[in-house]
Design brief:
By secondary structure, this protein is an alpha/beta fold. It has 8 helices and 12 strands. Helix 1 (98-111) packs across helix 8 and helix 2 crosses helix 4 (172-183). Residues 82-302 form the Alpha/beta hydrolase fold-3 domain.
Length: 326
């Protein structure tokens, strides 16, 4: 949210980091978030028939979530579970941001799933890998509900098919979903991770490719965001942001049977998403990779205009991916 900042001797606040359009950081360490700070309440969304509520996952760290589910679920029916990680360059936003709340209601209504939208701690106050650790705590919390008496959330206990669990996210959240899927190889879960959905994934790299070569302005912005969120001597080739970099876990280590990558034509991140998809297809991974390429749209357009025809088609594609038999 907006805050009041101390003034220097000239009467002006000193900005030491300016990262439009996300945030500013001042000399005293205070952070002003310029977007993604809005909140909306959970409850029944009449247009979609989706019900939501907020839950605390880890009291000590504040990791929490908003759960979305269809309001009317036939008795005894079990639905796929989606564990969703929001975007915002690891710097802004939350599950209660209206852009996420509204678009995820539409996805849940279309796909007929239960969705846990995770709130993880943000940089710069909490640099990476804090967001990954928080998100893993949320994944483990969901998995507790497989064992009777271990998990206590009735919406998961009553309505979820734990053989159909998907990790999903957009932008930075897609990067988190990928990290969670990699981590699940070494830290086994009781539930089955059936698939992964990467929407406009925030993958990057030191060597420019595709539009990054000519679109130097936007490339410089993404470079700046990443350096701020994750100071690293590997820069843009840190495996946290470049899954194809030297030292990154091999793609065949992905612990799921299918992956959906969604890209948008005008997105500066499009070429990285395509490269990941193509590399996955060529790797020794035994699963099935699918691609949705939306023409004429930019990064996470579906969040800002969830009622448009292309967003509706994207939600239908995501729903089809989750509900098709593997």
């Amino acid at each position: 949210m907006h805050r009041v900042f101390p003034m220097n001797s000239s009467g002006k606040s000193e900005v030491v980091h300016d990262l439009p359009p996300w945030l500013r950081m001042y000399k005293d360490g205070t952070v002003e978030r310029l977007s993604g700070y809005q909140v909306c309440a959970p409850g029944l969304d009449s247009p979609t028939g989706v019900l939501s509520k907020d839950v605390m996952i880890v009291q000590e760290t504040g990791v929490s979530a908003r759960i979305h589910r269809p309001n009317a679920i036939p008795q005894g029916r079990k639905l796929p579970l989606v564990i969703y990680f929001h975007g915002g360059a690891y710097l802004i936003s939350s599950p209660w941001d209206p852009t996420y709340h509204n678009s995820l209601n539409k996805l849940v209504a279309e796909a007929k799933v239960v969705l846990v939208s995770v709130d993880y701690r943000k940089a710069p106050e909490h640099p990476l890998p804090v967001a990954f650790d928080d998100s893993w705590d949320a994944v483990k919390w969901a998995a507790l509900h497989v064992s009777p008496g271990a998990g206590l959330e009735p919406w998961l206990l009553d309505s979820v098919d734990f053989d159909k669990v998907f990790l999903a996210g957009d932008s930075a959240g897609a990067g988190i979903a990928h990290q969670m899927m990699i981590r699940s190889r070494n830290e086994k879960l009781m539930m089955k991770l059936a698939g992964m959905i990467l929407i406009n994934p925030y993958f990057w790299g030191n060597e420019p490719i595709g539009a990054e070569v000519t679109d130097t302005l936007r490339k410089a912005l993404v470079d700046k965001w990443w350096a701020f969120a994750c100071p690293s001597d590997k820069g843009n080739d840190d495996p946290f942001v470049n899954p194809l970099a030297d030292g990154a876990p091999p793609l065949e280590h992905l612990e799921c049977a299918k992956v959906l990558v969604c890209v948008a034509e005008k997105d500066i991140l499009r070429d990285r998403g395509l490269l990941f998809y193509e590399s996955l297809e060529k790797s020794e991974w035994k699963g099935k990779a699918e691609l949705i390429d939306v023409k004429g749209e930019d990064h996470v357009f579906h969040l800002f205009n969830p009622d448009c025809e292309k967003a509706t088609n994207l939600f239908k594609g995501l729903a089809s991916f989750m509900n098709d038999q593997i």
